[in-house]
C-alpha cells in the first residue's frame, strides 16, 4: 500500500519525527522521553516480531501524547514494558498430547476421534 510503513525501521524513523518530546507513561504515572519510548518500541518489536504495515490513517488516529495508553497504538505497536513474564508452570504441551500422538501433528486420544494439527504438519514440510 502506498505511503504505509512496512518495516520496523520505517516505524522507528516515523516515531522519531512525530513524537512529542515527552510522553505520559502509564506505569510510572510520570513522563518518558521520546528516546525512551522509541527504545521501548524497538525492544517490543524484537520480542514480538510481526509484520508491520501501518497506513497514514491508522497512525493519525493515535494520540502520541498518551501513546502508552492509546488503544490503537496498543493494537498495532508492541512495547516491551507492557510484556508480562510467562507463568512458571507454562509448558509447551500442557495437555500432554504428545503421549496420544502416533505421529507429529495428529492427536488420537479417543477411539472414534482424531485431532489434526494443520500448523504442525505444515511446519514438518518446511523443516525437511
Could you characterize what this model shows?
The chain has helices at 8-18, 34-47, 56-61, 71-76, 118-127, and strands at residues 22-24, 31-33, 106-110, 113-116. With 128 residues, it is of the alpha+beta class. It has a two-stranded antiparallel sheet with strand order 1-2. It has a two-stranded antiparallel ribbon with strand order 3-4. Strand 1 and strand 2 form a beta hairpin. Helix 1 (8-18) packs antiparallel against helix 2.
Which helices and strands occur, and which strands form pairs?
Elements: H1 8-18, E1 22-24, E2 31-33, H2 34-47, H3 56-61, H4 71-76, E3 106-110, E4 113-116, H5 118-127
Antiparallel strand pairs: 1-2, 3-4
Query: How many whole angstroms does the radius of gyration measure?
Result: 21 Å
Structural class: alpha+beta
Helix content: 25-40%
Secondary-structure element series = HEEHHHEEH
Q: Residue ranges: pLDDT <50 for 5 or more in a row?
A: 120-128
Q: Which strand order spans the largest sheet, edge to edge or round the barrel?
A: 1-2
Percent range for β-strand residues: 5-15%
Mean pLDDT: 83
Distance between the termini: 34 Å
The main pleated sheet reads as: 2 strands, antiparallel
Rough outline: elongated
Q: Number of DSSP strands? A: 4
- Which oligomeric form is depicted? single chain
Number of helices: 5
Amino acid at each position: 500500500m502506498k505511503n504505509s510503513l512496512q518495516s520496523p525501521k520505517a516505524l522507528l524513523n516515523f516515531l522519531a519525527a512525530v513524537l512529542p518530546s515527552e510522553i505520559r507513561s502509564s506505569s510510572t504515572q510520570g513522563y518518558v522521553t521520546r528516546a525512551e519510548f522509541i527504545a521501548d518500541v524497538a525492544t517490543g518489536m524484537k520480542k514480538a516480531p510481526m509484520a508491520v504495515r501501518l497506513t497514514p490513517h491508522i497512525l493519525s488516529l493515535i494520540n502520541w501524547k498518551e501513546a502508552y495508553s492509546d488503544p490503537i497504538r496498543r493494537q498495532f505497536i508492541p512495547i516491551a514494558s507492557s510484556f508480562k513474564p510467562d507463568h512458571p508452570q507454562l509448558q509447551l504441551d500442557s495437555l500432554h498430547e504428545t503421549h496420544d500422538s502416533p505421529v507429529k501433528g495428529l492427536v488420537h486420544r479417543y477411539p472414534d476421534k482424531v485431532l489434526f494439527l494443520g500448523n504442525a504438519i505444515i511446519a514438518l514440510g518446511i523443516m525437511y
